[in-house]
Design goal:
Layout (H helix, E strand, L loop, with lengths): L2 H20 L7 E4 L5 H5 L5 E6 L4 H12 L3 E6 L4 H7 L10 E4 L2 E5 L3 H10 L4 E6 L16 E8 L4 E8 L2 E2 L2
Parallel strand pairs: 1-3, 2-3, 5-6
Antiparallel strand pairs: 2-4, 4-5, 6-7, 7-8, 8-9
Helix pairs in contact: 1-3
Length: about 180
């Protein structure tokens, strides 16, 4: 890792940490903390509400929740000791993993997927897609804002186990 990359990552981590501490008590999302979700936890999902499963210490996840709420989505947050059981429950494949998993209207949403693409997914209701993901933690994606946003794909995971590019972004901007 060169010094420029090291410093860029350091700045992003510091900014993310400051944003977590800057959150105010008027946060509109509901937050629950549990050790490990069970089937009953997943069955309590409310229609048209994004339930986000994340670890308590993850600041970029909170930033993504803020992004969803700013874009008109209702969100409930469930803090978990590990997100692995949630990913296993929803069937998120390893190549699509990120730092948090959301669930809305029968679809899973992995990582820093832009709100407009989540809204597109639930509006179009594709019958062959189980979920969408922004694999990894792409710099510049919602919740991962910072210098030098990268180009990244939002990937759809289909019922037959295949994947396809759902959309491509450069930071938050659509790429044709």
């Amino acid at each position: 890792m060169n010094i420029k990359t090291f410093l860029t990552v350091g700045v992003v981590v510091v900014i993310g940490g400051l944003l977590v501490f800057a959150r105010t008590s008027n946060d509109v999302s509901e937050t629950t903390t549990i050790d490990a979700p069970d089937k009953a936890t997943y069955d309590q999902a409310k229609p048209d509400v994004m339930t986000v499963y994340k670890t308590e210490a993850c600041g970029c996840c909170l930033n993504w929740v803020d992004h969803l709420e700013t874009n008109g989505m209702d969100v409930e947050v469930v803090n978990v000791a590990s997100t692995a059981p949630t990913r296993e429950h929803f069937g998120v494949p390893p190549q699509l993993l990120s730092c948090h998993t959301g669930s809305i209207n029968g679809y899973w949403v992995e990582g820093h997927v832009p709100a407009d693409l989540v809204q597109k997914l639930i509006a179009e209701k594709p019958t062959d897609i189980r979920g969408i993901s922004a694999p990894g933690m792409p710099m510049g994606s919602p919740g991962m804002e910072g210098p030098n946003p990268v180009r990244y794909d939002i990937v759809a995971f289909h019922d037959d186990g295949s994947t396809s590019v759902y959309a491509t972004r450069q930071g938050k901007e659509a790429v044709e």
